Structures are given as structure tokens and as C-alpha cells.
Amino acid sequence: MRRTLAIVVASATFVVTGCSWVKTTPGGEQVREATAAEVGACQEVGIAVASTQATAAGIPRNKGVMREEQVTLARNRAAQIGGDTIVQNGQPSSEGTQSFTVYKCR
Questions:
Q1: Whole-model pTM above 0.85?
Q2: How does DSSP assign 33-58, residue by residue?
Q3: Domains of the chain
Q4: pLDDT digits (tens), the chain, 106 positions
Q5: Which residues partner with 104 through β-bridges?
């Protein structure tokens, strides 16, 4: 029983604080994140909305990991729609959703 409990606690801890499960696609690797001031001469292509799980097993997830996943998802989507740069729109929501404007700068 103790061993099972230890495995469950360790697994929950890894899920909450652990690494990201979202992987960057080859196209997404070519997309960079920028600030609004850096995209003045770029062409707006669209919007990428990135959603990740805000909780795991009822426990709030690490905000840094969630942000990393959101950026990765937005970079992947930007590549799909012909962009090469993303800019975060506003503050991240507590529900795990963030939107990014996608630009073509190169």
C-alpha cells in the first residue's frame, strides 16, 4: 500500500511540476516569439490560440511549464498558417488558454 501511494504521489508531482509533453514540430522550430515592438514592419497572418491543462489530478500545474507548452503550440500553429513570428496577446488565463498573433517577418 505504501509503495502504491508513493508511486501515485511521485507521478502527481511529476505531472504538476515536470516537463512539458508538447513537442515542437520542424516548422515550429523556425518560428520565434517576439514583442509587439519588434513586429512593426511584419505582416499579420492570423491568430493562434494555445490551450493546455491548467490542472493535473485536481492539482494546479506549474505556470512556467504551461507557458512553455502554450508557446510551443502557438509556434507549431504559426508554422502551419505561414507565419514565422508570434506575439502573446494579453496575460495568460488561469484556465490554460493563451492567444498569440502570428506574423510573417522574413
A1: no
A2: E--GGGGTTSEEEEEEEEE--SEETT
A3: 2-104 (3.30.110.70)
A4: 555 444 444 444 444 445 567 899 999 999 999 999 999 999 999 999 999 888 888 888 888 889 999 999 999 999 999 999 999 998 877 788 999 999 999 8
A5: 43
